[in-house]
Fold:
Amino acid sequence: MSELFGVYIHWPFCASKCPYCDFNSHVASNIDHHAWRDAYRREIEYYASLLKGRVVTSVFFGGGTPSLMQPETTAHVLDTIAENWSVARDAEITLEANPTSVEAGKFRDFKSAGVNRVSLGVQSMRDDELKFLGRQHTAAEAIKAITIARDTFERYSFDLIYARPEQSVTDWRAELQDALRYADGHLSLYQLTIEPGTAFHTMYQRKDFEVPDEDDGGALYEATQEVMEEAGLPAYEVSNHAAAGQESLHNMTYWRYGDYVGIGPGAHGRITMNGQKQATRAHKAPDVWMGRVKENGHGSHDFEVITDDQLFEEAMMMGLRLRDGVSITGYEERFDMGRIHALEGEGLVTLNGQTLQPTVKGLQRLNGILNYLL
Amino acid sequence: MSKPLEHIRNFAIIAHIDHGKSTLADRLIQTCGGLEEREMKEQVLDSMEIERERGITIKAQTVRLAYTAKDGIEYQLNLMDTPGHVDFAYEVSRSLASCEGSLLVVDSTQGVEAQTLANVYQAIENDHEILPVINKIDLPAADIDKAKEQIEDVIGLDATDAVPVSGKTGINIDQLLEAIVTKLPCPKEGAADKPTKALLVDSWYDSYLGVVILVRVIDGYLRKGQKIRFMKAKATRDIDRVGMFTPKHVLLDELGPGEMGFITASIKDISETKVGDTITDEKKPCETALPGFKPSIPMVFCSLFPVDASEYEKLRDSLGKIKLNDASLHYETESSQALGLGFRCGFLGLLHMEIIQERLEREFDLDLIPTAPSVVYKINMTDGSQIELYNPVDMPDVQRIKSVEEPWIKATILVPDEYLGGILTLCQERRGVQIELNYAGNRALVVYRLPLNEVVFDFYDRLKSISRGYASFDYALDGYDENDLVKLEIRVNQEPVDALAMIVHKDAAESRGRQLCERLKDLIPRQMFKIAIQAALGGKIIAAEHLSALRKDVTAKCYGGDVSRKRKLLEKQKKGKKKMRQYGNVEIPQSAFINALKMGDDK
Structure:
């Protein structure tokens, strides 16, 4: 595989804000689609001028709800990317989509624009749970959208949220089995996390509901691994499951700590220039970002050079999320080998040559491992 | 010019906390014109913030009042406001030694309390004439007759002449002033023509004046410019100021026989001015020194560690500053594996300890971890030697110990009848031995002999909670006794946690050990490895808990936009690790130890 180089495009608007979501998303009624296309183009051109000669291996439209974009905008962005960089022939072009009938109706146009993979925010196969999660679709609608996606795109995936209030292992196994009937090669399964600044956070603080504790969350995670391995979709990352070769290339770029450009409000990037890794971080507010792009060509705060210590931490933190693990070449002296061996003794990691690999048991306790090792 | 002895009255005020002593002093000062109305703030004599807030007096204070009595003579009244608490009994005793009489203030709504008793006995020992004062008579709940009855029944003093007053409203203050002049004696001895002889009552550091020395003159005079000698300290100094407090500083030409006041002599270091020392004239010294006082001995010890290790220096400086004005505070550096660098501190008692901790946190803005309070044990070794044990960690090997002695106290408790049962049970649980049980009205007077180490461990809190705050308690040290005492050690993954080591009675070791293990199990966060928490006596494990390894701890989502945030979180946790202590292959947050140390009995 050639060197990974991804482009992330952030579309910050949603039809409504979900109570669990802490992403940079905004509910707006008047969107000037032409202005957005122009701003995206300008920012892509700016980064392309800094990163000449790179070959784009993936593009990812995230949000917000990028399926609310006009397909013309998607096409425009992809054309701009192709005009400014070479794009690998097998590049993965993913778009996040909500499984509503309206958005599913646009799938064909997104495909024409160049999208070859969709990731659907299904979240649950149960109508009452979808309501709790503040979603605008029903399970039946989601299944319909999945079917359209299957017929339209080369690849698709969908997300589910589990470890919801009062969810038992039995309930979840059944729901997951239902979902597997519609899966093809890739699924993302996230445990519900109560993030500060969300509606759920307030409700949680108010004790409107409880989420599974460490032991129950552990049992749910373990059950998930069992079901998914049986289904031939083992975890390749903490929350991502795929058949061999069906992994999300774009997300692998993050976890393998490759370079990626962040386009759009609130987008982050990691780009290597003159042998130095730099962090970019775009202004979050859409109009501020747009103003900066007009003024400076890009909407980021000052670029930040990643120090050697930070580079090590980020590379390990991301790399150890993968079942394949991470190479510690060049970082050997930063590790306490005794600690690695202690974790090996507990069956949490393995060290094969230079590759440090978390076991499935280790993935489930990754924060503890990182705290212990780094 | 100084007053003739007959026109001087030196007296102390003794009372239980909250019985209105300081307010009464305020009123006396105001009535005698020591301060204008606009200068009055509440409890003018309690100058420390902490004193005013807690309504207690820590340092003794003295004020000179001018009172013109009905006989037309202007009397000089020297009022000493003394600490009420047993921890400061030493301050009380030296205050009393410089006076001839005491006002015994009893709250007419509360009656006589345990502390009142202890202080009255001290005053009687000092040959004081005692004038009972029934305070707070303005309150609806006031019961003057009952208070008088208690003074007679519980203390055994004649209360016929007791003066009913209200410090708050000023009722009968004139009558009280008149009684001070007529009922309390003037200084007994004192000759103007004898060589200078004065008692060093107290001293403190003032950033403008240097060390200020509170004195009571016996014979002769103290004058500005005079060359004086501190007989015990064997130091010579020139007096550069002589004065009194009204309570404002007022400079005088001289202090004569029977008078109280202050001097300064360009002294920078308070340790030169030993309380109880005799001050005399360098050229014409007196023949014999005053008996002085026996120095205060710290009775309760605990270690103080800064939560933030980098504040160690600040803690050292702060202790140094407090020590400037509190010679009774002892401290030395201690290094703990669990808690880092800190100080082993000795205090006069529990209140003293609490106050010092509070001052460090409030005045000096320090975040502290105090270890469990402990006492001084005497260890008799098999080789015949005896060592004093200030820190349980230093307990010698059991094989080398012949016996262990611990300090005991005699505790006086006054408690309403209905709570007596609970109090007796508490005292029994704490290995107490009953000495006396009497009734005074509907209250019981209980005297118990108790090991001090059982009292330093939340005894007072339990006493208050059992009696809903109605029991009062005081104690006096009562020697050392041999007992079956052992060192209880807490181990985490086989390694001892020094900060949690404690000396306990053998019979209590197991339950205390189990309690600590259970508590720690709840306090230590799960880790990558399972953790064994054990309590041990010598080499023997007497209680154990196991904390299983972490089951799940992982961030569900981590994509391109999350890298910086998650990395910063990781770095923050790494910083937090500096507050962690390594036990085998596990790291335990300091907070777990702190909270284990905070534990009470009933959790």
In short: The CA atoms of residues 7 and 73 of chain B lie 8 Å apart. The first helix of chain B runs from residue 21 to 31. The longest strand of chain B covers residues 401-416.
